[in-house]
Amino acid sequence: MPTTIPKALQHFVEYLKFQKRYSQHTIISYQTDLVAFFDFIELTFGNTALPDIKATFIRTWLAKLKEGGMEAKSINRKISTLKSFFKYQLKEESITVSPMGTVVSLKLNKRLPQFVEKEDINTLFSHVEFPDDWQGKTDRILLQLLYNTGIRQAELVSLKENQVDAYKNSIKVLGKGNKERIIPVSNELMSFLKDYVAEKRKVFEKYDADILLINEKGKKLYPKYVYNAVKKYLTKITTISKKSPHVLRHTFATHLMNNGADLNAVKELLGHSSLAATQIYTHNSIEKLKDIHKKAHPKA
After folding, report:
1. Residue 275 and residue 127 share a domain
2. In terms of CB atoms within 10 Å, which of 33, 44, 54, 93 comes out highest?
3. Domain match, 93 and 129 both
4. What confidence tens digit (pLDDT) does each residue in 97-150 have?
5. Which residues span the domain enclosing 136?
6. Residues with a known catalytic role
């Protein structure tokens, strides 16, 4: 590929890292998409400079991805990556017109997020037995945090002790794009957190001191640990197909909406950048209302 393209890629990655302050995971996703795209351009159309890339080239790549069985959601992510990249190139004056102007995202089948019923959550925390060892204590508190705060898995494993404010009954969470948000927690959960930290001081001589949740070796939890713990305990109380940490985030939001929470408040608690991302939970609320109406109204 022309020598200008690797430089353009490098500058774009630096922009994402230092100006947009995206996470390493997000940056790698952008980089992977772009390398795959430019490899395709070179193999299909030969050495092509940035200003010579046309919308038809991009559509050809997207069509190939679709023929290969890639889901619309994944293709749309790649379209979003390319739009961001070429928008940056316009800003840098590397190109005068973006080839993405006529490229549109694919339509998605709207699927309501799965969530755990309130009764099942009550069963989890009131009747399921957790082992009386460090792993059992950690598994219980991580499940409580995920359900009671709606934080993401990545936010959970990175949570530090100094982000817990016992005086204000809240936790400070560092979310996507390094955006901070404050999430209130109940007296009960704060009490559990205090007990967990106090127990940690007694059990471990050496451990990752600044990290809130640690494993039996005193080390920061890794994402797979959290996923396995959630799947293990959700399997005990629900038959829904998905049993991931993100399902507890959906459950947090859905239960708030079903109990009349303001949509904007839920948006802030989840750390969404736009209201559109939060509005999907209103659909679950409406379905709940329909169910209640059907069961309770004599003419339903």
Report:
1. yes
2. 33
3. no
4. 999 999 999 887 667 789 999 999 999 999 999 999 999 999 999 999 999 999
5. 118-296
6. 152, 176, 246, 249, 272, 281
Write the pLDDT tens digit of every residue in 57-107: 999 999 999 999 999 989 999 999 999 999 999 999 999 999 999 999 988
128 alpha-carbon distance from chain centroid:
27
Q: Tally Cβ neighbours within 10 Å of residue 67.
A: 8
Pair 151, 14 in one domain: no
Residue for token digits 């996923």? Answer: 227
Q: Are 221 and 214 in contact (CB under 8 A)?
A: yes
- H or E stretch including 173? strand 170-174
Asked if 226 and 127 sit in the same domain, the reply is yes
In a domain, 276, yes or no: yes
Q: Indicate which CATH number applies to the domain containing 282.
A: 1.10.443.10
The amino acid sitting at 290 is K
Q: For the chain, first and last CA: distance in Å?
A: 65
